[in-house]
From TrEMBL, chains A, C:
It comes from the Bacteria. Keywords: Transferase. One of its GO terms (molecular function) is CoA-transferase activity. This is CoA transferase subunit A. InterPro entries: CoA_trans_fam_I, NagB/RpiA_transferase-like.
Automatic annotation (TrEMBL), chains B, D:
This is CoA-transferase subunit beta. GO terms for molecular function: CoA-transferase activity. It comes from Vreelandella nanhaiensis. It comes from the Bacteria. Keywords: Transferase. SMART domains: CoA_trans (SM00882). Gene3D superfamilies: Glutaconate Coenzyme A-transferase (3.40.1080.10). The keyword DNA-binding does not apply. SUPFAM superfamilies: NagB/RpiA/CoA transferase-like.
Length: 272, 257, 272, 257
């Protein structure tokens, strides 16, 4: 059964220095409040997994939390580069980070395989791409029935996955709705999981085939109102496209970034 | 007719026209999304747009800034999980056209969105592959749209993120279960198609007012022109009106929180 | 785009003698009306695929439509044996049939792989079971990352899949709700597909993550009111457990079965 | 106490008591389903019941006749597709206990639900494996419940549909990522558990009024008894009342259309 914890306590308990952490949310429901808590608690040497490391990972990388990033598309969607990611990769600031990159299809399948308890995912992927030459985790197998050459990647099985969702009921069952990405897979694939939610309700009001993650498949549920901003929560609030655009200027420069982090994360209250 | 329009508008309208009504199209963000939605709002009301965020058959009223804006989900027939999107809908062979942008493209239509320079010590780190590597191989065919420049159109890409026809033009030969690959590249100057034999991109149509020299100057290899070089039809008044309204609606929406 | 056809015309067009046919529905939404139409049109030499061949396949087998059955559990749920299946397997009436049997996990994964366009499914399955000794389609592969031995089965890719659903809209998009089984996978994995529905509506009234099969992924939609009886349609009518129990006596004997078939299928009107 | 109860009731109550509150249980249809729901309605209100039809955490008011009755979906936390059920929830390691019935069981708790006789020319064709082969290996442990008879309890099953401990008792040795296997078998006569070393099923508890001879006569091998043979506690009045109400509700419901 999921335990109801404060976001501070959930992060303190489950995110250890050196851990492999997946914070997921495919543009929608990105767990920003939780990410900021990780920064505030100065977690270090994390291996950060995420299909689309957008500005939350830019912030974590710039704040020095990351040792390695495993991803398939690292940009500020519709705006441009992640300047902190680039600064780390290109110039080693605040320190060098390793990267391991995949395609979306491979990572999505790797999350699926992780949730399915398998060691590998098989897909018709990477045909003609040079990604396998720079990622030794991409292998190829032969189908025993047809002889076709198919790509294989290791499944994703994080130490802890963190996702944001609309709401939990009082037993800790969680409803995720709208663009559901790989969030359910991330939670099921991980040893531990933290789900932040907009609110706790008596009744999830879910339809029969809704994406509901049962309480007994989650480690901790923490309330984080507006916990996805500047990303959004379907049915609660919209995406702050304006902030995504503003981020470009903030992140471009180490000083403006550092000041932003001081003002908006280190000095901010949890969930503020 | 002497309509006023920009080369960007010419590119979007030409790219939109490439999409036939009823086509199922896996849409990349940015220029492809603009073109695909313009197609839907003009000649192709029944084009089916799929975004990798899981939104199936979506009809956004404004262009999404990201691949997963709320607008895409709200106007979709349904929204599926991302693993399902890549497994059932793309790899499962349900997509007729993959519509992609890119940072770099070479003469064999290979795409690079990974980096400029050397992989271990990149000069410019780009966002990475995203959905493109498998869109380009699992969709029936691929349309590519981007602005023409010597930086973008290079003889050989620094890195093949996404297969066009390989570094020798033969990258799809004898590969089972693979799509046709890039069948056209639409830029702000021209339309290019792969030579049926060598797969090298050849200019087949010049946009109005664009010269061969303009294209040659913006292309990083000795670009060839088709024997029967055509002139791309101009945008219609209606197309321009709809495109401009779409962009104005989008800008208003994105300026708000 | 799906074409709206009568059930007669849909079956006549897409179910050919000798075809591989999957009629799916995991207890719920079993396409009985369509199965009866297949019997009425005297289709022969079909390879019938179904995880849980219950009494609809008993009827098809007894009526002589089947050459081969691929399945993972063939019984009358909660009641007992499928007597027509047993009579065919044990005594060759009305003729000998081949069987190829899997476990549920393997067949579910094989449908998933079929929908995913892959030639094989990989699972942690059949450990210690003797099923691989009687089914040469079960093979084992080694994970290139961990060395673990995993089962592999060919994906299911029928010539035609037939499923029943709640409703379609006027474009032919279909909503499936409740116990959704492997129906979406069956449709997506097949070359052609027929979906029978309770009704056609203006608006599916589906929630954002509903199981909706788009019109362009379906060959034909046919209205078949009460088309799942004696199975059921969530939101429309319940399961006739009584008929499932009565079937035991009807099917036990060749003569009572033949009479039942005459009275209730051959002499019945389509959709009656 | 001298309550009146049948041996079937004794079996169901004993099987129910095996399930601890809070356990996540993958439930087979028939006797396991009766026992699991009795557990939920008595000492284990928070037991999580999962049926292979995709219904997660379901709380049916009546016993389902089939594995996919509407009642299961209507009372479930949510209902997922069958591939997801087997992949994420069972193979993904979320199930503590798989609760199975069977047609045949042997001394190493291997289960046969495939056929009696020879595979090519069966005397009796049984329904087949269904979910059992992977429930038995991917669940944390396995409980089995069935009526005791010489036809059912055989020295060697005709066919190993589902692994207990293999034909030599060593079938799980050195197999990675596999559950503990059968940890108890509950019949209408007794409770059996595998010997820790040999894995042969041993009678650990006799139901009230049942003798060693009764069990020996109903078992197809020379069955062993634990040194410390226990007497299974009788059903309580409350357990019997709840079980009988459940069965009466179920019968009324199944008699209608």
């Amino acid at each position: 059964m999921a335990e109801f914890l404060s976001l501070h306590d959930a992060v303190a308990r489950y995110v250890q220095d050196g851990a492999t952490v997946a914070m997921e949310g495919f543009t929608h429901l990105i767990p920003f409040a939780a990410g900021h808590e990780v920064i505030r608690q100065k977690k270090r040497d994390l291996t950060l997994i995420r299909m689309t490391p957008d500005i939350i990972y830019d912030q974590l990388i710039g704040a020095g939390c990351a040792k390695k990033v495993i991803f398939s598309w690292g940009g500020n969607p519709g705006v441009g580069s992640l300047h902190r990611l680039r600064d780390a990769v290109e110039k080693g600031w605040p320190h060098k980070i390793e990267i391991l990159e995949h395609s979306h299809a491979a990572m999505a399948c790797a999350f699926e395989a992780g949730a399915a308890g398998l060691p590998l995912a098989v897909l018709r992927g990477y045909v003609g791409s040079e990604l396998p030459s720079v990622n030794d985790q991409i292998k190829f197998i032969e189908c025993p029935f047809t002889g076709e050459r198919l790509a294989a990647v290791p499944s994703v099985r994080p130490d802890v996955s963190i996702v944001h969702a609309q709401r939990a009921d009082r037993q800790g069952n969680v409803l995720v709705e709208g663009i559901v990405g790989v969030q359910k897979e991330a939670v099921l694939a991980a040893k531990h999981s933290i789900v932040t939610v907009e609110e706790i309700v008596d009744d999830l009001k879910a339809h029969p085939n809704a994406c509901v993650i049962p309480s007994w498949a989650i480690s901790a549920v923490a309330v984080a109102e507006k916990g996805a901003l500047p990303s959004y929560t379907h049915g609660y609030y919209g995406r702050s496209n304006r902030f995504y655009k503003e981020w470009d200027a903030i992140a471009r420069d180490r000083d403006t970034f550092t000041k932003w982090l001081d003002d908006n994360v280190y000095r901010a209250e949890e969930n503020a | 007719m002497s309509l006023e329009y920009t080369s960007s508008e010419m590119m979007s309208v030409t790219a939109a026209r490439a999409l036939e009504n009823g086509t199922t199209c896996f849409v990349g963000i940015g220029l492809p999304s603009e073109a695909a939605n313009l197609a839907r709002l003009t000649h192709a009301p029944d084009v089916v747009l799929i975004y990798e965020s899981g939104t199936l058959q979506t009809k956004p009223d404004i262009l999404p800034l990201s691949i997963g804006d709320g607008e895409l989900c709200e106007s979709a027939l349904t929204t599926v999980a991302v693993p399902e999107m890549f497994r059932y809908w793309l790899q499962g062979g349900k997509v007729n056209v993959g519509f992609l942008g890119t940072a770099q493209i070479d003469r064999f239509a290979n795409l690079n969105t990974t980096l400029i320079g050397d992989y271990k010590a990149p000069k410019v780190r780009l966002p990475g592959g995203g959905g493109a590597p498998e869109i380009a191989t699992n969709a029936g065919e691929v349309f590519i749209t981007l602005k023409h420049s010597k930086r973008a159109f290079v003889k050989d890409v620094d890195f093949v993120t996404t297969l066009g026809f390989g570094r020798d033009g033969k990258g799809r030969d004898n590969v089972p279960n693979i799509g046709k690959g890039p069948t056209r590249v639409i830029t702000d100057l021209c339309v290019m198609k792969p030579d049926p034999d060598t797969k090298e991109l050849v200019v087949v149509s010049l946009h109005p007012g664009v010269s061969r020299e303009d294209v040659m100057e913006a292309t990083g290899w000795e670009v060839r022109f088709a024997a029967q070089l055509e002139s791309t039809p101009e945008p219609s008044e209606k197309e321009l009106e709809i495109l401009r309204e779409l962009k104005a609606r989008t800008e208003r929406a994105h300026a708000g929180e």
